[in-house]
Structures are given as C-alpha cells and as structure tokens.
Amino acid sequence: MTAALRTMVRGVREIDKRLSRRSIPRRILVDGHTPVNFTMIAPVYRAMQDDPRVAFYFTASHEASRIDYVYHEAPDVRRIHPRLAALLKFDAYVT
Known about the structure:
By secondary structure, this protein is α/β, with parallel strands linked by helices.
C-alpha cells in the first residue's frame, strides 16, 4: 500500500469513527453459542431494554442456523444474521 493510500484510509477511518461516536442509540451485539449465553446477559438486557440510548442485537455467529435455539428463551430480542451483523458497526460486542 502506498503512503498516499494509507493516509487516505486513515482519514476515512477517522471520519467514520467520529461520526459513529455521535450515533444514538449505541448498538450492542450479543453473540451467543448456547442458550446459557443469553441467560448470562439477560439481566443486563432486561435492565437496559427500555433505554432509548441503547439497542441490543443478538446473533449466533458460530452456527447461524441455531439462532432460534440459542435465543428460544428470549422471543422478544432483535435477532440478526451473522452475515448482516458483519456489515454493521457496533459500539460493543459481547460473547
């Protein structure tokens, strides 16, 4: 990569970082592998789910086909396919 290209990429990343810090709500991605993973984060999610400053998304990146199984105790959560999650920017990642 040339020096000019590196400088340009750094500039674009800095702009992206500054713009994303202003975003409300803050997006949190929870990546579960088994139902117990949701059980562990459930108290935090339940306490914060009505806070307009935070939006939770739930995925199962290791086995996308099991997302319904992993979150079967949480029918109200916003589920997102791992491929789509990979394209979005999140403020926090919990696994």
